[in-house]
Each structure stands twice: as C-alpha cells, then as structure tokens.
Amino acid sequence: xxxxxxxxxxxxxxxxxxxxxxxxxxxxxxxxxxxxxxxxxxxxxxxxxxxxxxxxxxxxxxxxxxxxxxxxxxxxxxxxxxxxxxxxxxxxxxxxxxxxxxxxxxxxxxxxxxxxxxxxxxxx
Length: 124
What we know:
By secondary structure, the chain is of the alpha/beta class. It contains five helices and seven strands, in the order E-H-E-H-E-E-E-H-E-H-E-H. The longest helix is centred in the last third of the chain and has 18 residues, at 105-122.
C-alpha cells in the first residue's frame, strides 16, 4: 500500500483521484494549496506526490524544486498533471513524470506504478 499526496485545487478532481487510488488500496492525503505540499511531505511517510501544475495560491514548481533540492525528500517521486503541455519544464525541475489532462484513469495508474517501481529500485 502506497501513501500518496495528491495536490489539486479542483475539489471534484481531488474526489475522483482519491476514490481511484483508494480502490487500488492506496492511502491518500489531499491538499489544495502549493504551500501545504512540502510540510506534508516532511511530516508523513509519503510514497509519491501527484500534483497539478496550476494550483491556486502559489506556484507548484516551487514545491517541486524544494522537494528535489532536499536530501531527505528528493527520493520521493513526483508526477505532475496539467491541462497544458508543461512536460519539459516539470521534468527539468525534477519531476519523474508528467501527464496531460484529460487523462484516462488507467493511464494515470500505469504511470504512477511505473514511477513508484523505478523509485523503489533506486533505493539502497
């Protein structure tokens, strides 16, 4: 069972993603503001972060950069979603993956599992 932090300011999307991941047996923590991402990652045993590129109240790329520049957090994989193609920017900032909205739930789960599997293989 993975513990996944989902960051999205669309409450409907949060509900759908939470249901989808809970049906897969994962534990889900949700936030709607980018300022809440890093404190949760620091205080919980997060397996993966799934974050929307555009979050109200701030810049999600700052949270991504903070995670990836922290020696204690950088091992946590981050998958970014967006309705606009921001893949190059997200990968450049350290994300392990990017998925364009709208996406099929099966495609999201496939990409999440692949990223989590790869991150587990990198652990010492």
